Amino acid sequence: MAAAGGGSRADNGYGGQQARRRKGPGALATGYLVIYNVVMTAGWLVIAVGLVRAYLAKGSYHSLYYSIEKPLKFFQTGALLEEYLLIVKYLLGIVPSSVVLTAFQVMSRVFLTWAVTHSVKEVQTEDSVLLFVVAWTITEIIRYSFYTFSLLNHLPYLIKWARYTLFIVLYPMGASGELLTIYAALPFVRQSGLYSISLPNKYNFSFDYYTFLILVMISYIPIFPQLYFHMLHQRRKVLSHTEEHKKSE
C-alpha cells in the first residue's frame, strides 16, 4: 500500500456533518475523542513551530528533519491508536468502508517514517523529506482541528474550507516527497541488504526489501487517484451543502 501523501484523509467517522451517523458517540467517548484530537493538534503544532524555529536559526531549509525527528515519530505513530479504533468501528458497521483506505493511509505514513526515513539514515538530509513533512504537518493541524471543533459542534467555516481545499495542493506535494524519498533510499537498501532475507535458510523463505520498496512506489499509481478523487468528491458535497445552508438562512 502506498504511503498516502500529505493530503487530507477521508473522514474518520466522528467529524463533520457528513460523517455523523444515526447515533453519535456518548459523552465519555466524545470527551476522549476531544482530548485525543486536541493533543494531536498540539503535537503537530509543536512540529510546525520546530520547523520554523530551525529554519530561522539555520537560515536554510536543508536538513530540517533533525529538528523535528522525535515529535514527528511520536505523533505520527500515535495516529495508529486512532486507526485501531476506526477499524474496530468498521468491523462493527459503525463507519463507512472508506475508513479502510484511511487506515492503510496512516499505516503507510508510519511505514515511511520508520521503515524508510528512520532506517535509511542517508535519506534524512534529502529535501524530499521536508516536502512530505511540511505537507503532513499542515494537513494534520487542520484535520485534528476539524475533528475537535466538529465534536464540540462549533466548526468554523474557515477550518472546514481548509480541510476540503488545501489537500488539492498538499496531497500531490506529500506524495511527491514520499516517492522521491523512497527512490533516494533504493541504492542504500540495495547496497546494505536492509531487511532482506536470502536463501538458503531454515524457513525456506526469501524477502527482498529493495523490490518491496519498488512495489510500494508502483502502488501509488492506482491508489493515489482513488484517494484524491474521493476527496474532490467530498469537497463538492460538503462545501456545496454549506453554501446551500447559508442561502437558506
Walk me through the structure.
By secondary structure, the chain is mainly α. It has one domain (27-243). Helix content is 71%, strand content 0%. Helix 1 packs antiparallel against helix 2 and helix 2 (65-91) packs antiparallel against helix 3 (98-118). The longest helix is centred in the C-terminal third of the chain and has 40 residues, at 209-248. The chain is globular. The N and C termini lie far apart (44 Å). InterPro entries: Tyr_Pase-like_PTPLA (IPR007482). One of its GO terms (cellular component) is endoplasmic reticulum membrane. Belongs to the very long-chain fatty acids dehydratase HACD family. Its EC number is 4.2.1.134.
Layout of secondary structure:
Layout: H1 27-58, H2 65-91, H3 98-118, H4 127-151, H5 157-163, H6 167-192, H7 209-248
What can be said about this structure in brief?
It is built from 7 helices and no strands. The protein has helices spanning 27-58, 65-91, 98-118, 127-151, 157-163, 167-192, 209-248. The protein has one domain.
What sequence of helices (H) and strands (E) makes up the elements?
Answer: HHHHHHH
State the share of residues found in helices, binned by percent.
over 70%
What would you call the structural class? mainly alpha
Distance between the termini: 44 Å
The Rg value, from CA coordinates, equals 19 Å
- Mean pLDDT across residues: 86
Main sheet attributes: strand count, strand direction, barrel closure: none
Backbone shape = globular
Number of domains: 1
Find the count of extended strands (DSSP E, 2+ residues): 0
Number of distinct helices: 7
How much beta, percentage-wise?
under 5%
